[in-house]
Write a structure and sequence with these properties.
The chain is mostly beta strands. The protein is built from one helix and 51 strands.
Length: about 800
């Protein structure tokens, strides 16, 4: 039977869909809300491109083979440690793999040690190699390990060493050898006194007298704590002119050291004592960005220049303007005093947003070693990267927001073997620390760091100041200076505090039991307690509330995806809502239930995901969001799907797809009404103007159809419960004598039964000559629902085949 036009069009459309599906990626397609897995020849997973298990989108390289072993380290001794050099080569002259990421430096005093987290000292981040400093006070062994982007380590190199730091030799000075008569007048000046050099044992009794000290020579940094006591000062030796205004502070005087006999009359004046916080700031550097020779570009390919006549800039109306990603470092070394608090302030703005990327900046101080040349980053390496970014670290400065001023703080050294601070420290009470090898600092500004094309930023001020200690006195109490441990327990009782601010304190409504606390443990949070525990929290991590059953609600705006979380009473499972910005400007919303065990997994859950013009409700795994299995609703702008779907076994799917004016069944269609009814189980009603078929069944061609007028076409065999057919053979008992045979069949449906018969013969009717052999008649009688009589009459007694049919109505 020839195919009609409708069948041919449907077939061509289906074949076109298959061709387009197979060629999608070859012609620049996309991965829709899923991920593409890359596997090697053995079937092992090597990369995941697209939607990751945590909802993010990335190219994730996994299971990479171990990189080749680096070449052996080269060691050298320096003060306070050793240098480790790598020449950038690999063992056996192996080729650097494309997924190489870094080379780790491991050191230990144990011979034959195994590299581990506690032995990791620093890394080489460039395949060109280099030299780093490893701080140590005893000989150590060193080996190198390479890692690739999958985190897979290489075999370790053969260990080098042991090697220790260069020894320091000092000539001792006997106690009391330096006395008044041994010092020429004005011999001791600030430049000749080392930081903390003057201690109690270095000064004989009455050794320091007025003629021996140049005015202003002795400053705070030159006197060790409690070094100057009464027995070491000549009577009347300390006068106003001989002390720097900030020289003698509380930490430099021994208890009860200054007595009447040791202070000259009129020596103590206003100029010689700290008056307020303003006079405690020792300015180290202020740059209004008017001199390009004070700065040098140390990295990146951007350009920079000094602009004058910028009317809204600071002092001098000058700015440094950079175009594109640019790293600038001040040329001036500032001596680093670990006892001083360094206040670093930068004022900048973005005048033109990048065409691609983001206008982020890194601001802070670059550490420099004792030689005044070698850089010391937070890990102790000679590198301009990973520096002490205590002002800003990857902070975006949006275009059009005007001048932005940021201040960060640095004080003291990190412990030996511990990294310095590389993140913003904007609170002077919690400053960052420098690496232990830092002896100088330089301002470091890395502008438009996140920009990959275009962008303009300007900077009009960089200041570095030191804030001395000992600023609290009768005239001025510095903000934040008075804390709970400095007040008598009953110092403020029953009083009202009006106006002002309280900084750096813990405030609580009660010491125990039900209470509210602010900044408890200096943790910058507000806590609400019941009789035994904290049940509410407002902090940088959001708002947490704990109910009487133990269940917790947590509003967390700081999460990678801002969320509202619900934890059960035992804290073992949680459900949550979260917002996701897959593309800039999106505000997608996901609902997750808690996890449960099913299908051989322990992390099954239900998710509702309302995204950019789509909605899904599905049963997935928390660790694999694309692994759906079970009932699923998928709503889009041009179709809707509902049913059972399985990402691993698509052939098991059974669902309906709803499109404009059409419903498609994806799978077997079973109609099983749940209750008996007088309604039709399957009912099709077409509009009066409908011209197509009412029913059409198709598989490799049309099998069954009913057109609009009820005409029915069945291409296969038709079997009906009210029709019986068969064949029987009857041998007449005599010529010209009707003879019958009883035929039986399964009971037919119906109440009226009609039989039809015909002979299978080539000689129907009366033959010539008469009585020769013709079949003169065939009939049926006594027709019932299950049997009937079939009759034949012919001119002879030849056995006759009769085909019969019974139809019930």
């Amino acid at each position: 039977m020839a195919r009609d036009l409708t069948s041919e069009v449907a077939r061509i459309l289906q074949e076109l869909k298959e061709v387009k599906r197979g060629q999608r990626y070859a012609h620049g397609g996309s991965i829709e809300d899923s991920a593409l897995e890359v596997k090697d020849g053995s079937g092992s997973l090597r990369a995941i491109v697209g939607l990751q298990g945590d909802g993010t989108t990335a190219v994730n390289i996994v299971n990479g083979p171990p990189p080749p072993t680096p070449s052996a380290p080269i060691l050298g001794s320096v003060l306070g440690g050793i240098t480790v050099s790598w020449d950038g080569r690999l063992a056996d002259d192996a080729v650097l793999p494309l997924d190489w990421q870094r080379v780790e430096v491991h050191a230990s005093a144990v011979d034959g040690f195994t590299p581990a987290l506690e032995t990791l000292k620093t890394t080489f981040e460039t395949p060109q190699g280099g030299t780093v400093v490893v701080a140590c006070d005893e000989p150590v062994y060193v080996l190198l390990v390479a890692r690739n982007t999958s985190g897979t380590p290489s075999p370790a190199t053969v260990q080098a060493g042991p090697l220790g730091p260069t020894p320091v030799v000092a000539d001792d000075i006997k106690d009391g050898i330096v006395t008044t008569v041994k010092l020429a007048d004005d011999a001791v000046t600030q430049a000749k006194v080392a930081v903390g050099a003057i201690g109690t044992t270095e000064i004989t009794d009455d050794a320091i007298t007025t003629p021996k000290i140049v005015a202003g020579a002795v400053q705070t940094a030159q006197i060790a704590a409690e070094a100057v006591n009464a027995s070491k000062l000549a009577a009347g030796s300390v006068t106003t002119l001989k002390l720097d205004a900030l020289a003698v502070t509380a930490d430099k005087l021994a208890t009860n050291s200054v007595t009447a006999g040791k202070i000259a009359a009129g020596a103590v004046t206003t100029n010689a004592l700290t008056v307020g916080i303003a006079q405690s700031i020792g300015q180290k550097l202020t740059d209004s960005m008017g001199d390009a020779t004070l700065w040098q570009q140390i990295a990146d390919a951007g350009t920079w220049q000094v602009l004058t006549g910028v009317t809204d800039a600071g002092t001098g109306g000058t700015v440094i303007e950079v175009t594109g990603r640019t790293a600038l470092e001040a040329r001036q070394n500032i001596p680093f005093d670990p006892d001083a608090l360094y206040k670093v302030t930068v004022r900048l703005r973005t005048t033109v947003a990048p065409t691609t990327g983001s206008p982020t900046v890194y601001l802070g101080l670059a550490g420099v070693a004792a030689d005044g040349v070698t850089r010391v980053n937070t890990a102790g390496a000679n590198d301009f990267s990973l520096q002490h970014y205590v002002v800003a670290s990857n902070q975006a400065i949006a275009a059009g927001t005007g001048w932005t001023t940021i201040t960060g703080y640095l004080k003291g050294w990190a412990a030996a073997g511990v990294n310095g601070t590389g993140t913003p420290r904007l609170d002077p009470k919690t400053p960052g620390v420098a690496h232990a090898n830092v002896r100088y600092v330089r301002p470091l500004i890395r502008l438009l760091y996140g920009a990959t094309a275009g962008g303009v930023q300007q900077i009009d001020l960089v200041t570095v100041e030191t804030v001395a200690t000992g600023v609290v006195n009768a005239v001025n109490i510095a903000n934040g200076a008075i804390t709970a441990d400095k007040l008598d327990a009953n110092a403020i009782t029953g009083k009202t505090i009006t106006g002002g601010s309280i900084t750096g304190a813990q405030i609580q409504t009660a010491a125990s039991g039900q209470r509210i606390t602010i900044n408890e443990g200096d943790a910058n949070k507000l806590l609400v307690y019941n009789a035994t525990e904290a049940i509410g929290e407002l902090s940088i991590r959001g708002l947490l509330v704990k109910g009487t059953s133990g269940a917790v609600m947590w509003l967390d705006p700081s999460a990678v995806l801002p969320q509202l979380r619900f934890d059960n009473a035992s804290g073992t499972n949680s459900a949550y809502f979260q917002m996701a910005e897959v593309n800039p400007g999106d505000a997608n919303l996901q609902f997750f239930t808690g996890t449960f065990s099913a299908d051989g997994f322990t992390d099954r859950l239900w998710r509702q995901y309302m995204g950019n013009d789509f909605l899904r409700i599905e049963r997935i795994r928390r660790s694999a969001s694309a692994a759906f299995r079970g009932g699923r609703i998928n709503l889009r702008n041009d179709f809707a799907e509902i049913g059972y779907m399985d990402a691993d076994l698509p052939g098991n799917a059974g669902y309906h797809q709803y499109q404009a004016g059409a419903v498609s069944s994806k799978g077997r269609h079973l109609v099983e009404p749940q209750a008996a009814s007088s309604d039709t189980a399957l009912h099709v009603t077409a509009q009066s103007g409908h011209t197509g078929n009412l029913i059409r069944l198709f598989r490799d061609g049309e099998k069954f159809s009913v057109d609009k007028d009820g005409n029915t076409n069945v291409t296969g065999m038709l079997t009906a419960g009210n029709i019986a057919t068969g064949t029987t053979t009857i041998t007449p008992s005599a010529a010209h004598t009707p003879t019958s045979a009883l035929v039986s069949f399964p009971a037919l449906k119906g109440t009226t039964f009609r039989g039809y018969a015909t002979a299978a013969t080539t000689v129907p009717g009366v033959r010539t000559p008469v009585g020769a052999q013709g079949v003169t008649g065939v009939s049926m009688s006594s027709v019932t629902s299950s049997n009937a009589l079939v009759w034949v009459n012919r001119e002879n007694t030849t056995a006759t085949i009769v085909n019969w049919m019974v139809i019930a109505s």
